[in-house]
Amino acid sequence: MQFKDLKRVFRRNQHRYNEETLASAREADRLIAGGYNPRQDPAYQRSQIGRAQSKDPKSSGMDYGDTKYALVEMPAYVRGRERMSEQGANLLQLDVIIQLLLDGEKLPRSAHPHKLGGDMKGIWECHIKHTNQGDNWVLLYRYDHKQLVLYAINTGTHKDCGV
């Protein structure tokens, strides 16, 4: 294989999303298509109360209060949050961004919010923290404006999320 062929293969595979992120995105799509409303789901309400009362250091324990959007944390997001906590990330930075999104506010330009394409069409990405090494901390999310739900798809570095 020649160098130009290797370069083409690398470019084609460069934007391949990891399976965990894609699975959470597909699950969010399924919930949106089914008209899922977490405000009417007792299991969701119990999980939110438990999260607010949690003493687990991996959970911020932040009570988002009465917001415009309800938050649904997808499995990849929960694992990504735990991973970032173990790496010593300040989860308060993530919680501030989540709070802005739940209130329907615009994110600051420094967060660089933008839509993703390809398999992740409809998913938004924003930057929680920029680093000089280029391995930024990002949040992947999706809105369901009809049911007023924010789906947190994944969080972590670009490499962790496969974006």
Summarize the structure.
This protein is of the alpha+beta class. 41% of the residues lie in helices and 18% in strands. The protein has a single domain, classed as RelE-like (YaeB-like fold, 2-Layer Sandwich).
Notable traits:
163 residues; alpha+beta; five-stranded mixed beta sheet; 41% helix; disordered N terminus
Total of DSSP H or I helical runs spanning 4+ residues:
6
Helical/strand content category: alpha+beta
Characterize the largest beta sheet: strand count, sense, and whether it forms a barrel. Answer: 5 strands, mixed
In helices, the fraction of residues equals 40-55%
Order of helices and strands: HHHEHHEEEEH
Number-wise, the strands total: 5
Q: Beta-sheet strand percentage?
A: 15-25%
How many angstroms does the end-to-end distance come to?
27 Å
Unreliable spans are 1-15, 57-61
> How many domains?
1
Mean pLDDT over the residues: 77
CATH topology title: YaeB-like fold
* Cα shape: globular
Strand order of the largest sheet: 1-5-4-3-2
Seen as an oligomer or otherwise, the chain set is single chain
Q: Which CATH class applies here?
A: Alpha Beta
